[in-house]
Amino acid sequence: MMGLMMDRPLLTTEILKHAVRNYRKTEIVTRTVEGPIHRYTIGDSEKRINKLANALVSMGVKVGDRIGVIGWNTNRQFELYYAVGGLGAVLHTVNPRLGPENATFVINHAEDKFLFYDTTFAPLVGAMRPHLKTVKEYCVLSDEENAGEAGKGAAIYESLLSGESDTYSWTDFDENTAVAMCYTSGTTGDPKGVVYSHRSLVLQSFATMLPTALGVTEGDTLLPVVPMFHVNAWNTPYSCLMGGVKQVFPGPRLDGEGIYEMLESEKVTYSAGVPTVWLGLLQYLEKTGKELPYLKKGLSGGSALPEALIRGFAKYDVELQQGWGMTEMSPVGTVNTLPPHIRELSADERIPYQLKAGRSLPFVDMRIVSPDGDVLPCDGECDGQLQVRGPWIISEYYKSEKPTLTDDGWFDTGDVAIIDEDGFLQITDRSKDVIKTGGEWVSSIDIENAALSHEGVAQAGVIGVYHPKWQERPLLIIVKKEGANPSAEEIIEFVKPNLDKIAWPDAVEFVDDLPLGATGKVLKTELRKMFKDYELPS
Question: Which residues have C-beta within 8 Å of that of residue 485, sequence separation ≥ 6?
């Protein structure tokens, strides 16, 4: 017997319609690429989205066309999200940090027909342009006055919109139609394409707005520091509009001072970014003595959240939550929202729980398996390969001939993890970054987190280097905080109490900078190249 309910498609345009009906006066604020603050309401945004939809149709955009965009978090890119998807076309957010070679690869692989870009990225577009095989029209995200050299040979965004009607009649189509696509950062080969459906992003929006996830709602203000090209700013352009949350887009100013200015002036209550962003903000606060009177919570993802950051922001009455996900998961899989019985604990007693990645969102199934494929118990002790499945998790990579899922339909994340009896996930390492020493596995993340608690350490990375007896031993690579000068011996002694003896690093090396990938993660592949001939002290 089947249920007798209407079968209405889950489309992102329905999020827009809902927001206009219920939250039309809620603001969307942008620090523009040009500098001034742009401010309008959700109701205003709908009119511009309609204008953009009409302009795209005039340009010849059709259902299924891929539309590339290389841009900062601004209202213009936000408008593209809804106008492109509403036409049944696909918005391809291109990560400029991929560099010219990989960015060219993903645009050609996606077969983008149109390419929008901020003026900042005109040199990148200019370098790629002779090699882009399918792009037939370019558009700079600017007005005539500010386009300058970046607008040569391209349409001007504001001019496209100026002559169009501010009404548009959205049509229904299959909810499984593609709406957006992102590419993985390509740290272990060519970037791989992940294509999201309207259904998957609408469902993720419902889940991420739950009190046990981001938990933001009407009356809150969210600033996504995480870029829109990093898995759609963790889906916030959709989920925030669904919940009537005021959005504040930081544009290109992502330094500690720039972020603080927007947090303060717009009374932001929730923000989201990778640990390097949170570190920059914390260092700015410590340097200036400024406070955070409005910010209540922050979501950190992309790499492990160090204890030092959790404690650092707690001094400002800001709770940093750890989350975990992947490009292949749309992206949010878990959020660390502490249950009441843990919140009642002291600050020191809560820390071990806060260092975990949290519990899964509804409909996200997680399991850990042994190298032989045996499913392991979720007992808080066994660690294994983390596999996931759910309605917003990838089924296959774009144009890939290789199987993406296991034989029984799970996606192997490449992470090594532990899951406890209460469902809390703890990522212990990437499978390729675990250090094998004397037949035992050592987590590089544990060593990095221990080192980051030292007041003189700004950044830390750990790799395994050759050892004639133990096969591999940990090498700790440190960037010192400005004005600090800890010794290698001091840091080794500092981390020992927080690590098993087998995980004590054999050596510490200091560098000026750590190599970071397109999403802000430390590139262990580059560290291994830098130290490929390294010899541990006897």
Answer: 456
Catalytic annotation, pick one of 12, 119, 184, 327? 184
Instruction: Quote the CA–CA distance of 418 and 337 in Å, as a whole number.
Output: 18
Catalytic residue selected from 41, 134, 441, 504: 441
Per-residue model confidence as pLDDT tens digits over 182-192? 998 755 568 89
Measured distance CA(242)–CA(12) in Å, rounded: 9
Q: Which of 133, 267, 287, 436 is catalytic?
A: 436
Of 333, 268, 260, nearest in space to 294 by CA: 268
Cβ-based neighbour number of residue 68 at 10 Å:
27
Please name each of the domains of the chain with its CATH number: 12-252 (3.40.50.12780), 435-530 (3.30.300.30)
CB 225 within 8 A of CB 256: no
In 3-state terms, what secondary structure has residue 263? Answer: helix
The b-or-e profile of 479-498 (16+ CB within 10 A means b, else e) is ebbeeeebeeeebbebbeee
Tens-digit pLDDT profile for residues 370-425: 988 999 999 999 989 999 999 999 999 999 988 899 999 999 998 999 999 999 99
Rg of the chain in Å (alpha carbons) = 23
Per-residue tokens: 463: 């790799």
Q: Single out the residue of 230, 229, 239 nearest to residue 206, CA to CA.
A: 239
- Top mean-pLDDT range of 359-373, 429-443, 461-475: 359-373
Select which of 14, 79, 266, 328 is catalytic.
328
Q: 184 an active-site residue?
A: yes
Identify whether the C-beta of residue 258 lies closer than 8 Å to the C-beta of residue 31. yes
Question: Scanning the structure block, which residue is given the tokens 């036409």?
Answer: 87
436 noted as active-site residue? yes
Q: Residue 273's closest CA among 243, 244, 301?
A: 301
Tokens 């799970």 label which residue? 410
Q: Which of 155, 157, 195, 193 is nearest to 176 (CA)?
A: 195
Strands 411-419 and 425-430: antiparallel
Phi, psi angle pair for 536, to nearest 5°: -65, 150
Q: Which of 287, 335, 286 is nearest to 312 (CA)?
A: 286
State the pLDDT at residue 451. Answer: 94
Name the residue with tokens 């200019």.
126
